[in-house]
Design goal:
Its EC number is 3.6.1.9. Residues 1-12 have a biased composition (Low complexity). Keywords: Hydrolase. Residues 176-251 form the NTP pyrophosphohydrolase MazG-like domain. The structure is a single chain. The chain has 370 residues and is mostly helical. It folds into 4 domains: 3-146, Tetrapyrrole methylase, N-terminal domain (Cobalt-precorrin-4 Transmethylase, domain 1); 152-230, MazG-like (Helix Hairpins, Orthogonal Bundle); 233-275, no CATH class; 289-356, no CATH class. The chain contains 13 helices and 5 strands. A 5-stranded parallel sheet has the order 3-2-4-1-5, sandwiched between helices. The longest helix has 23 residues, at 201-223.
Length: 370
């Protein structure tokens, strides 16, 4: 088990409760009882995203070997589990111990562990820094010991918690439906695409967050559905299962040497999952027309179907046949490995830049004409 989540039997026995049995071990830092030894101050940090009582083994060892364990927060979530493990925690009134008091407590080689609140104790750390920088005080050893720490993705828990509070307490958010939010999902997706095409890393991070908000918001709305509720965990669980199932070369016994092999695995597994009667099923008709044409062409080509395109007619006349001509171009682009939607958007951006350049270089006031 990873140290970040290690727990051991309590002082009462091996019943699976949290906190290790007191062992009487002592920590080698400083010789207790030696009046010349400076001692040791340990700030024990924990993450509110990890269940209380699940501490690293190093944290449990330090707690049991400490001469004093101090905490200023009587409601600290770790306290019941520390006491259950046989650790005596002294509640310090007010704002907690001062830096000077801690230094004095460590005299004689003693070890003092401080369990600060979840947001930390800036007053104490600043005070210790000032004492250490003054050069007038013989400082004990200072140690920041993570008792528990966040794993990647931990801030997603914060997002879920914040979204839940907003859904309950915000007059606007509490009334929104999936239908109300649909337009924002489309808007945020386009803003994400623009950030990608602009190569703007700061905007990319922000827009990814906005898209993620749409997912969490919709999941929170779904949680309130009286007939078919589901949660954000259900959403995450569904995509996890899908990814595992469609990557048998990672999570199973199959192999994939090339990207084409991976796509083959994906499509075969997807076909079994969906059991669709037509390759056109599952293609949203509401997407932009060029993207729709490219997706249809991709499905047809992958399925090995030979489907003639609609006759183009005379596209140079009054517009008749223009759609067919555009469809043919989209199919050609897809066959050549080019996304027609992205290609046209890139060309349009170049054209936009050319328009701006023409506006800046023309004579006159530079005001745009109607």
């Amino acid at each position: 088990m990873n140290d970040a989540s290690a727990s051991a039997p309590s002082a009462g026995g091996s019943d699976g409760t949290r906190g290790p049995r007191a062992t009487g071990e002592t920590h080698p830092a400083g010789a207790a009882g030696d009046p010349a030894a400076p001692g040791r101050i340990v700030l024990l940090t924990t993450s509110h995203r990890v269940a209380p009582g699940l501490l690293s083994w190093a944290a449990w060892q330090t707690l049991h070997a400490a001469d004093r364990v101090l905490c200023a927060d009587a409601g600290h979530p770790q306290l019941p589990y520390l006491r259950e493990a046989g650790i005596e925690v002294e509640l310090v009134g007010g704002t907690g111990p001062t830096a000077e008091e801690l230094v004095d407590d460590c005299a004689g080689g003693r070890t003092v562990v401080v369990v600060p609140p979840g947001e930390g104790d800036r007053r104490l750390t600043d005070g210790l820094a000032r004492l250490a920088g003054s050069g007038r005080v013989r400082m004990p050893d200072l140690e920041l010991l993570p008792g528990s720490y966040d794993l990647p993705g931990a801030r997603l828990l914060d997002l879920v918690q914040v979204m839940d509070a907003i859904r309950v307490g915000c007059p606007w958010s509490s009334k929104q439906t999936h239908e109300d939010l649909a337009k924002y999902g489309i808007e945020e997706t386009y803003e994400l695409v623009e950030a990608i095409e602009d190569g703007d890393r700061e905007a990319l991070r922000e827009e990814l967050g906005d898209v993620l908000l749409q997912v969490v918001f919709h999941a929170r709305i779904a949680q309130d559905d009286p007939e078919e509720p589901f949660t954000v965990d259900d959403v995450a669980g569904t995509i996890v299962e899908k990814l595992i199932h469609r990557h048998p070369h990672i999570f199973g016994d199959e192999t994939a040497e090339t990207a084409e092999d991976v796509i083959g695995h994906w499509l075969r597994r997807k076909a079994v999952e969906k059991n669709r009667a037509s390759v056109t099923e599952g293609i949203p008709l509401g997407q932009p027309a060029l993207a729709l044409a490219g997706k249809l062409a991709s499905r047809v080509r992958t399925a090995g179907l030979d489907v003639p395109l609609p006759a183009a007619g005379d596209a140079a006349g009054d517009g008749e046949g223009m759609g067919e001509a555009l469809l043919a171009l989209a199919v050609r682009a897809e066959a050549a490995g080019v996304d027609p939607e992205s290609a046209l958007r890139a060309a349009a951006r170049v054209y936009r830049d050319a328009v701006r350049a023409a506006e800046e270089s023309r004579d006159g006031t530079g005001e745009a004409s109607d």
